[in-house]
Amino acid sequence: MAEQFDVVVIGAGPAGYHAAIRAAQLGMKTACVDAALGKDGKPALGGTCLRVGCIPSKALLDSSHQYHNLTHSFDQHGISFKDAKIDVAKMIGRKDAIVKQFTGGIAQLFKANKVAAYYGFGQLQPGNIVKVKQHDGSEVELKGTNVIIAAGSDSIELPFAKFDNENIVDNVGALDFTEVPNRLTVIGAGVIGLELGSVWKRLGAEVTILEALPDFLPAADAEVSKLAAREFKKQGLDIRLGAKVSKTELSGKGKKKEVVITYTDASGEQTLTVDKLLVAVGRRAATKGLLADGTGVKLDARGVIEVDAHCHTGVDGVWAIGDCVRGPMLAHKGFEEGIAVAELIAGLPGHVNFDTIPYVIYTSPEIAWVGKTEQQLKAEGVAYKTGTFPFAAVGRAVAMGEPVGFAKVIADAETDRVLGLHLIGPNVSELVHEGVLTMEFHGSADDLARICHAHPSLSEAIHDAAMAVDKRAIHKAN
Description:
alpha/beta; FAD/NAD(P)-binding domain; Enolase-like, domain 1; 3 domains; 5-stranded parallel beta sheet; 14 helices; 21 strands; globular; cytoplasm; nucleotide-binding; EC 1.8.1.4; FAD/NAD-binding_dom; flavoprotein
C-alpha cells in the first residue's frame, strides 16, 4: 500500500529540493525522490547544478583563473615565481570535495526539515501515485495529495557525435579530464561551452569553439556580445561562427585516439582534428519514462511538461517546475518556482516574475544582465534611452587590474522606468542584482542615480551609467 504524503516531489535538484524544504517548513508531510548517484556510487542530492553543473564548473573556473593570474598578471603586482605548474588531479579533487560538501548539505537540510528522501527513479502513475524503483531493485509507492515534478534536464546528444565519455564528452566529462588536453573543440558557444572552454584554455589547451549560429551570444545585448567576442579572441579562444558540424570520427587507438570533426562554414567544408570534443549544444527536459500512461499530464513536442502561469499541469494536485517546464533553464528560476508552488499548495500567494530573472555567464570578464536588450526593445517598438559607463573609469576596477567592460542601464524614454541592466566586467554576477531589485520595485534610472554608492567600489559603474541616462554622469563626457 502506498504511503500517504501531503507533497511528493520528483527530483532533488534546485527546483525540487527548494519545493520539498519549503513544503515541509509549511507543515506538510513531504517526500522527495531522486535517482542521482555521486562519483562514489552513493546517492547525491542537488541535481545537475550541484553535482555536474553550476557548482563544480565554478570551482574549476576559480582554480583556472588563479593559475592564469599567476602566469599572466601577478608580475604587474611585483609578485614573481618560478616554474608554475597545475596539478589537474588535485584541482579536480578540490572540485569533488566542494560538490560532496554541498550534496551532503542538502541531505542534512532534508533531515533537519523532516523531508523523507527516497533514492531511485520516480515515475508518476494515475491518481497522484509515484512509483519509485530504488537502486537495490525494490519498488515503493508514494501517494501525494500533491505531486511536484522537478525532473530537471539532460545534455542534448548529437546523432553524429555520440558521447563515449572519453574523447567525446558532455559537461560531465569536461569537468573530469585527468589532464589538460592539447586540443579541445567545443560545439556550441553558449554558457557551458564558453565557461568550460575558458577553464581548459587558461590551463594551456588549444581551444576551438564551433557555433552554428551566425551571431555570437545573440541573447545578450549586442554591445556586450561585441566586447565579449573581442576579449575572448584576445584570450586565445578560437570562436568560429556559422560553423555547422556534420560528422565526427575517431582515429587512432587507446590514449592516442583523436576526434576528426567535419563542419561547414562560409568557406565550405572543413575538418579539424582534436584530442577532446565537448558537445554543449543545449539541454532538454528529462521527461523520458517519467509519466505512466493515463496520468493526464501533457508534454509538448520537445518533451517539456505543459503548465500554466502557476506551474500547474491541469491535473488535480500535479505541478511541474524547473528545467522540465517552460522558461529559462536556470537553477535560480527553479529555486523560485519550487518555493512559489509549495506556498500555493499551502494556500499562500506564490509567483515568479520572469521579467526580473538575471542571466550570468561566469567567464572572464563576467557577463550578466536582467531585463530587455536594446535589440528586443527595437523589435517591440518601445522608445527607450540608455546610459553606459566603462569599468576603465572606475577606480576599484583599475586597482584590481580588471578595467575591461561596462555597465549599461536601459530606461523607458517616457517614464524613466528601468527596462534592463547589461554588464560585462569584474564581479558583474553580483552587481546585476542592483538591476533586479530596481526593476522588481518598478524603479527608475533616476532612482538608481540618486542612491549613494560606496567609493571606491565596482558598483559605481552602475551609478554613473544610471546618471548617464540623462547625460549627467560625473566621471565621463556626456
